[in-house]
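Example 3.
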Amino acid sequence: MDKIIVQGGRRLKGSVKAEGAKNAVLPVIAATLLAEEGQSTLYDVPPLADVDTISNVLRHVGTEVTYEDHRWIADATGDLSTEAPFEYVSKMRASFLVMGPLLARKGIAHIALPGGCAIGSRPIDQHLKGFEAMGAHVEIGNGYIEAKVEERLQGARIYLDFPSVGATENIMMAAALAEGTTTLENVAEEPEIVDLANFINAMGGKVRGAGTGTIRIEGVDKLTGAEHTIIPDRIEAGTFMIAAAITGGEVFVEGAMHEHLRPLVAKMREMGVKIEESDGGMLVTGPDILKPVDIKTMPHPGFPTDMQAQFMALLTQAKGTGLITETVFENRFMHVEEFQRMNASIKIEGRTAVISGPKKLQGAEVSATDLRAGAALIVAGLVAEGETTVTELRHLDRGYVDFHKKLQSLGANVKRVNADEAADTSLKTAERS
Ligand SMILES: CC(=O)N[C@H]1[C@@H](OP(=O)(O)OP(=O)(O)OC[C@H]2O[C@@H](n3ccc(=O)[nH]c3=O)[C@H](O)[C@@H]2O)O[C@H](CO)[C@@H](O)[C@@H]1O
Ligand SMILES: C=C(OP(=O)(O)O)C(=O)O
């Protein structure tokens, strides 16, 4: 088991590049299952644990996948099987995104129930509502969901009760091969939805309106493999923007796109952070004094829940009191206890965290309670007095490529060690002395 050790106190300086977006690449990889003809080639695919998991799901159902040097190639033209077992879905909920494409292409899909996860119960009722509206019969039993359609899915008018990202993607993929037109209302507007729609259209699909609240999908008879470059990861980019700001540093984040990061940029500027846009990225300069602000997480274009933990780290260093209200996931404050171990002053009142600062953080041993919490604690460690050790890095590895190496390249004093080896070495040293 690895851990990351950060020695606080250095200002970050330099340039760092965002990878392709995890939350865009996972649905796009699922969509490659829609291609009855031709290979799909994806570029800028980040080497993440989640990409391995979804690639294995595709292999399991009969897709040939090769992946090397950020280039991912799939051939799904063979006879696909229709089951995604618990082994994969339990590792990563996004595995459930293969349901829409398999149902559309094979008329049946049998996927393990995703269940809840650390940040919330995360039901999938809106995905299923969409499939049923298109004529699928859905049954749940023995830990699996089976969706089946007699002939072909039928276009339908579907209103989502909540603009769920996953439901929008899953239904959009199913509708791409349905008979007739599907109108999806109150849908998610995230940039990753637009990326998926662009890929489906490159395959010969007819998706219009992605990025707005209503998407129209005219079903086609067949889709063909296509080439596509994944958009930059706005959450990874945002994490480095916060790392720059919290240390009072100056960092150019390549791939940080303003139109994808509006709420974060607006709030950081309100705090006094200087952000200059330029071709291909943003230059972030941290001020001497950070001002407190209030944020509320919301579906896009609101403030992203995936930036909430990192933003909390920043607010611990602001002069005054800031509020964070989490409205998307009911249990996404687990990192608060970990920040408290580092001497942060944070109180939780219902769905709101009250953060008082600036508080001198102290190095401590903390645990990455989820993916973004892991990054946030490392970022907090950059300004803590002494040494911060972050464990449970399997969460971090789902969404960040070489996070410690990228921070090192910006001048941070951070290393990743194998915890067992580290324990072994200290034992040997103790034995010798
Ligand atoms: C792989 C991926 O892209 N993950 C992102 C995606 O997750 P994901 O697609 O799972 O998130 P959703 O937008 O679906 O979930 C948002 C909220 O809607 C609820 N809900 C969702 C579906 C449903 O059928 N019923 C229901 O009640 C969820 O419990 C949650 O409270 O969007 C989230 C919200 O921006 C991000 O935090 C995740 O990083
Ligand atoms: C919550 C996240 O991802 P997932 O939906 O894959 O759990 C995230 O990326 O922060």
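The two ends are 26 Å apart (CA to CA). The chain is about 35% helix and 25% strand.
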